[in-house]
Amino acid sequence: MQDRQVVEELDIRVDSRYQRLAASHAVRNVWDVLVELITNSDDSYGRLGQPTQILIEVEHSHSEKRFVRVADRAEGMLPDELKAKLTWSGSGSYEGESRGFMGRGAKDIVAIGDCLFETIKDGAYSSILLKRGMKAEIHKPRKATDADRERLGVGKKNGTVATVWPGDAQLPRHSTLLELLPQHFAIREIFRREGTKARLVDLTAGDKDTLQFKRPEVRLVYRDEFEVDADLFPGVWTSLEVYRDYV
Question: In the beta sheet, which residues pair with residue 197?
Fold first, then answer.
């Protein structure tokens, strides 16, 4: 093998156009945004060993003021934590059982629109605005005020609130979110879990509802039993059942 003298080692830079393309494939609509934010909150509650309790608010007005917001009273983040987790695209910030949605992160939400993260931890308030085009505004952290705690709904606890302005993306109706969000394949286990509490609020109409998983009505359409492999696993049998939703 020919000798080669290393003169420099560096990370390969990623063009912003590539980052935007990757984000657009990861987060395609408001459903993906909600899944990502709900999953993040659930992970945070999991690290605390507490049941997940989240508030989802949607402003349906027909203007640039439309937004969707997910709030929790979980860990919160210190200023350095917030910056590290939200300004390094493609980085992994998972801990323990934390998983995120399909390996993507909250940073990819900018494929839909601007996203403001506000968080309180150990008395410190900090925030970052992620903007379309993979830009970030880092705001000066400060001591959390009573007004901050009331506005974010965290009381005396820690917590994080993410507000997303979805731009031209379609914003599902309140009734549609109420019916389908708890059934979403990526987060239905969260809503099925005992202790989970999730409220959905339509700020435009004033509707307030509890999000609950409802097991769909199904009918058995196929069932069979067969031996796995008589040579490798003698005496081992398995069964296959296929169900179909009632439509």
Answer: 53
